[in-house]
Amino acid sequence: MKNDKRISELRRDLVSGTWVAFSTRRKYKPDARKDAPKVSDNTDDPKDCPFCKENIDAQGQEKDTLTYLDKKGDWTIRVFPNKFPILSIGDNTLGKRDEGPFEVMNGLGYHEVLVTANHRKNFPDLNILQIAEVFEAYQERYVALMNKRSIKYISIFKNYGKSAGASIVHPHSQIVAMPIIDPDVARSLNGSAKYFQTHRQCVHCVMLEWEKERGERIIFENEDFIVLCPFVSRVSLETRIYPKRHLSYFERITVEQKLSLAEAVKFALGKIKYNLKDPDYNMFLHTAPCDGQPYDHYHWHLEIFPKTNIWGGLELSTGMEVCSVLPEEAAKLLRK
Predict the structure, then answer these.
(1) Which domain covers residue 285, as residue numbers?
(2) Structural domain includes residue 243
(3) For residue range 40-63, what is the model confidence (pLDDT) as tens digits?
(4) Helix, strand, or coil here: 216?
(5) Reduced to 3 DSSP states, what percent helix, strand and coil does the chain have, rounded to the nearest 5?
(6) What is the mean pLDDT of residues 1-16?
(7) Quick one: 40 and 104 in the same domain?
(8) pLDDT, tens digit, for every residue of 229-288?
(9) Burial grade of 200 (CB within 10 A; 0-12, 13-18, 19 or more)
(10) Which H or E run contains 129?
């Protein structure tokens, strides 16, 4: 690993225009082990867990970027640089250049891991205040990273289960600050902007009003947030969490909204855990970029993708998702 001089590089596809990250350090991740346990099995030994209290200081991690403590002085949340980063700080220059017909630049950015203290407790098992504290930590790190040099977008996500990309069983999330706007968010931003230009309305607000009138795909709502299975779900049993008010920027979330969001997240992931027999899943944030451009037309939200199926030839060859469960049936199942 020490011989990897080029830790990360971004290359732009000449046809699609999207960027792809090449990170040589990722090949050393723990999930290279064939016997790595499934996260939801909880069969691993905490004594061997690199994120547990007894071991985390012995892992040679760099200094924490953020630590939350309880009244006894024990840590509840720790955030630190990922040992196997997708992007790296490097020499703080993007080094944009042409290689033949292709655009290339250095993989400049920040990749951090957020770890909660309890080895067994994921979001459905935490209380509302504990979940709100996680979102407070997300917000604090987001604000700290958004003004770093060359950063345009910050991705916050949680992988639960080996099939969702989690290499360590212990509950954790990841924060990646990057010099590009990722392709999925870029498509969402472009669609939102186009709809606003035509209708002078937020497309997500329009969808939410329509969903509230019908109610058949809504799973949960409180004063500030609504949880639903979208009419055009991208995967079976996809779940989204939206602010009810039009809000573009996650980093501006208030204390009261964090508590409401924590309630919505606990409900959604609890229903997924108990009604779907604890599947692996990915949960990620979509929010307006931090590149200095106005995105008032956008509406931030969380997306949860249970891993209930694997892409086959049609999905890979066409990019068209195929769902085996109608969102109306998914919502009915998750409301149980």
Answers:
(1) 184-334
(2) yes
(3) 444 467 888 889 987 876 554 557
(4) coil
(5) 35, 25, 45
(6) 73
(7) yes
(8) 999 999 999 999 999 999 999 999 999 999 999 999 999 999 999 999 999 999 999 999
(9) exposed
(10) helix 128-146
pLDDT tens, position by position, 61-73? 557 789 999 999 9
Instruction: Map tokens 């033949």 to a residue.
Output: 100
* DSSP classification of residue 108: B
60 lies in the same domain as 201 = no
Q: Examine residue 2 and state whether it is found in any structural domain, yes or no.
A: no
CATH of the domain at 257: 3.30.428.10
- What is the model's pTM? 0.90
CB atoms within 10 A of CB 332: 14
Same domain, 242 and 283: yes
Whether 3 is in a domain gets the answer no
Residue 285 token pair: 């944030």
The per-residue pLDDT for range 306-317, each reduced to its tens digit, is 998 776 776 666
**CA terminus-to-terminus distance, the chain:** 49
Burial of 53 (0-12, 13-18, 19+ CB in 10 A): middle
Query: E strands of 60-137, at which residues?
Result: 66-69, 75-81, 97-99, 102-106, 110-116
Half-sphere exposure (CA, 13 Å, Cβ side) for 328? Answer: 3
What is the helix (H) or strand (E) element at residue 134, kind and residue range? helix 128-146
Q: How far apart are CA 77 and CA 81, in angstroms?
A: 14
Q: Which two tokens stand for residue 26?
A: 């990722």
197 and 174 Cβ atoms separated by less than 8 Å: no
Question: Is residue 233 in a domain?
Answer: yes
Considering the chain, what is the average pLDDT of its residues?
89
**Domain count within the chain:** 2
Same domain, 167 and 88: yes
